[in-house]
Specification:
Elements: H1 8-22, H2 25-39, H3 41-67, H4 72-86, H5 94-112, H6 114-117, H7 123-136, H8 148-158, H9 169-176, E1 181-182, E2 185-186, H10 197-224, H11 235-247, H12 252-275, H13 278-297, E3 300-305, E4 311-316, H14 318-336
Antiparallel strand pairs: 1-2, 3-4
Length: 340
């Protein structure tokens, strides 16, 4: 198992449960995608809040960076002060993103190994079945190949009697009836570039997954209110290139999942934008910061002790009061430790 696909056993149980209800692999993937999006919606709300706040902080931080461009130390100090003042966290929105990636890699593992994770066939029986397929049917299946279980399911469907020495009757029945067909597309197949009718039909879903990914990136970036800087501008396009590779090297079932996931992500982004609009949150944050800064400048009546020991009332701002308190604390420390 791929290390990043450690969620596969859990996701497999969920997909097995859904498959038992609908008896179709394609609809299982669609319902699974919908279910995971619903379950992760609270985390997505949290991420949207964080992203909306970051979009408000971004121009303020850029202003600080521009103002102190020639003094990196002062720039760092001012940025730290800004983070403390706003309570900003650079990692607040990372958890939903990480969870999305873990679900993605876990699902790839399930798509690779439906026999193991959905039909619950023990791994040692799968390895024996691969040997039988190679010796009795002359196939060339490699146990570690990521599409071997999809190929094995199709081999059992075509030659159920050949595998009676490995699987029991119930297992052969479950494997033979496993339904990969989705509107005429065999989701167990790996698509490849060719111009015959079967290959063109098989390429439809991977192409849709790439198109919907690009569309979802555009929508999500627009709805987040953030402007990507530097190399980050190219990140969505680099991710798209990576999924072109995935789409044409893994069974097409993965592309179906990814297409549905992208469409749901777009809808979710639009809904979350209505709930937490970055422009509205920016105006709210600017008002909060203005109030905090105004409060710091307001004068307060405090009692201070002059160098001659005389007590007097003085009007000071919050910043001046902090300086007075710091100076007084240092005086007390000097007095306490003067003999050390």
């Amino acid at each position: 198992m791929n290390i990043l696909g450690f969620l596969a056993p859990v996701l497999g149980i969920i997909m097995e449960w859904i498959y038992e209800l609908v008896k179709n692999y394609g609809w299982t993937l669609i319902l699974f995608t919908l279910l995971t999006r619903i379950l992760m919606f609270p985390l997505s709300i949290k991420q949207q809040k964080s992203t909306a706040r970051m979009s408000a902080y971004q121009p303020m931080m850029q202003e600080i960076q521009k103002k102190w461009a020639n003094d990196k130390q002062r720039q760092s100090e001012e940025l730290m002060k800004f983070q403390e003042e706003t309570g900003m966290s650079m990692t607040a929105g990372c958890m939903p993103m990480m969870l999305n990636m873990l679900v993605l890699f876990g699902l790839i593992e399930v798509v690779y190994r439906p026999l193991q994770y959905i039909l619950r066939v023990p791994k040692e029986l799968i390895e024996k079945a691969v040997e039988v397929a190679n010796t009795a049917l002359g196939m060339n299946l490699a146990p570690q190949n990521f599409i071997v279980q999809n190929q094995l399911i199709n081999a059992v469907k075509a030659n159920p009697g050949t595998f009676e020495s490995v699987f029991n009757a119930d297992q052969i029945s479950a494997i033979s009836s496993f339904n990969f067909n989705f509107f005429g597309i065999d989701l167990s197949q790996v698509p490849h570039f060719a111009f015959d009718a079967a290959s063109i039909v098989l390429m439809i879903i991977p192409i849709l997954s790439i198109v919907t990914m690009l569309a979802s990136q555009v929508v999500m970036t627009k709805m987040s209110g953030q402007e990507m800087q530097g190399a980050m501008k190219w990140m969505p396009w680099m991710m798209s290139i990576m999924f072109v590779y995935f789409g044409f090297t893994v069974p097409v079932g993965f592309s179906l999942y990814y297409t549905v996931s992208n469409v749901l992500m777009m809808l979710q982004s639009i809904i979350l934008n209505k709930m937490y609009n970055p422009k509205e949150i920016r105006a709210q944050i600017e008002a909060e910061l203005a109030e905090k800064r105004a409060a710091k400048k307001r004068k307060k009546q405090v009692k201070v002790i002059t160098s001659s020991g005389e007590e007097k009332m003085k009007e000071v701002s919050e910043a001046e009061l902090a300086r007075i308190r710091l100076a007084r604390a240092r005086e007390l420390d000097d007095e306490r430790y003067k003999d050390e």
